[in-house]
């Protein structure tokens, strides 16, 4: 049973990463999407991401690195997803800064994971750290919005989504090891 949960968590992270890549590209390419559609899609994605994080936390991975902070983060994502889905019009002005905050929080937790991976002896810890720092920078840029043109905001948001996906993809690839003998 442990192996099945771990594989589901790893595969779920990979799938969510791909969805973040696609969402980032779409966010950069499509300038106008109705608010209700964005809220419903974002809410569903946040809930799914929260479920994957909680599943990861509950799995017993060999290194215990990738999922160590995912219980609280998964619950936060699920609650946020429900709020986003229920408050389409009222929440619209907070969607982009909220996205930046979620990327920033996840990136900061992954920085700590990179530190732990270094202490654990993983040689790829620096790649996780670099991806996490890049995602954190874009999270801050999404929150602060130093550029006010809609095109640049969409590019920064799309790149932030893609970096979130890449950071998770890389972290799971490098830190989740399945013991095939079990």
Spell out the blueprint of helices and strands.
Layout: H1 2-29, H2 35-58, H3 70-86, H4 88-91, H5 95-120, H6 125-144, H7 150-175
Q: Could you explain the architecture of this structure?
A:
With 182 residues, the chain is an all-alpha fold. Helix content is 80%, strand content 0%. The protein is built from seven helices and no strands. Helix 1 runs antiparallel to helix 2. The longest helix has 28 residues.
List the uncertain runs: none
Rg (CA only) = 16 Å
Count of helical regions = 7
Distance between the termini: 10 Å
Output mean pLDDT.
87
Count of beta strands? 0
Order of helices and strands, N to C? HHHHHHH
Residues in helices, as a percent range = over 70%
Sheet of most strands:
none
**Which term fits the overall shape?**
globular
Structural class: mainly alpha
How much β-strand is present in the residues? Answer: under 5%
Keywords:
0% strand, 182 residues, mainly alpha
Brief summary of the model shown:
This protein has 182 residues and is mainly α.
